[in-house]
Amino acid sequence: MPAPSASAATPRRTTSPSFADAGARRRYRIVLMALIVLAAVFALGLLAWGNPMPVGTAGFWRIANLRATNLLVMVIVAVCQAVATVAFQTVTTNRIITPSIMGFESLYRAVQTSSVYLFGVAGLVALQGLWQFGIQVAIMVALAMLLYGWLLTGRYANLQIMLLIGIIVGGGLGAIATFMQRLLTPSEFDVLAARLFGSISNADASCLPLAIPLCAAASMLLWMRARRLNVMALGAGTAQSLGLNHRRELMIVLLLVAVLMATSTALVGPMTFLGFLVATLAYQFAGTDDHRLVLPVAVLTAFTIIAGAYFVMRNIFYAQGVVSIIIELVGGVVFLIVILRKGRL
Question: Is 277 helix (H, G, I), strand (E, B) or coil?
Fold first, then answer.
């Protein structure tokens, strides 16, 4: 009986070091194509579904252009949340936390509540536009970098302490906001409550000329550092032994993460569990830990979730206002499932 050939006895290897075998690489391509198709279908659906004007007419394109603004906001939010969360989980070597833990959303709530508390509903209306958006982003990034610089470059620099203080600062800002909300009139609180739920409809189109460059520049810089993120995922000690300046790289990544999270939060409001949901699904879909491959899958997954949820809830259930609540609910349930499966934080 002839002996089996060497090619039959050994599994087929792939030329890419990012995948274990050729099957994993083929599966990645299939998942990527499926996400691209789903994203395109939901984007076209949001532009054309329910358009009362005949297809191809000037009125049809006028309505489609109005809807394109919301679609652009969804792209910005998807890129910001997906890229920031994947990068933040990598540098903290923890896949069950999100950048929200640093208090960005609590700061947003405190700023919005303070404007109503001090100036009434007119103050909340005045807190819109390009300048106000830029000031909010600048405050969030400045506070984040002040915290990072203080806690990561001092004598007792420690990433875990930085995360703990971020939680405490976020809790303190949330408590201040809650106290001021109790002193508002019912009508003022109703107006404020609509702003405190993350929603695409909260976005001000006049902020896009600043939001788009911030989102594009920060996400592109993080994607270009994907190979360094692969090294940082091995841990601080291993990264330093491989010649990477871990402290410097950590500060750069956290700065870019702060810019992305501040842009998303100032544009549409808090979305606590969206990033966690997207990052968790992206690693499952990609089947690899290579950030050059995970980041595109994460962005496509985020856009598919947001656009799909808005399309279904607006055109089938006529409940567009609860989209963010449903996304947060699903993200929270996935978070609990991951915690229960891991059995630890």
Answer: helix
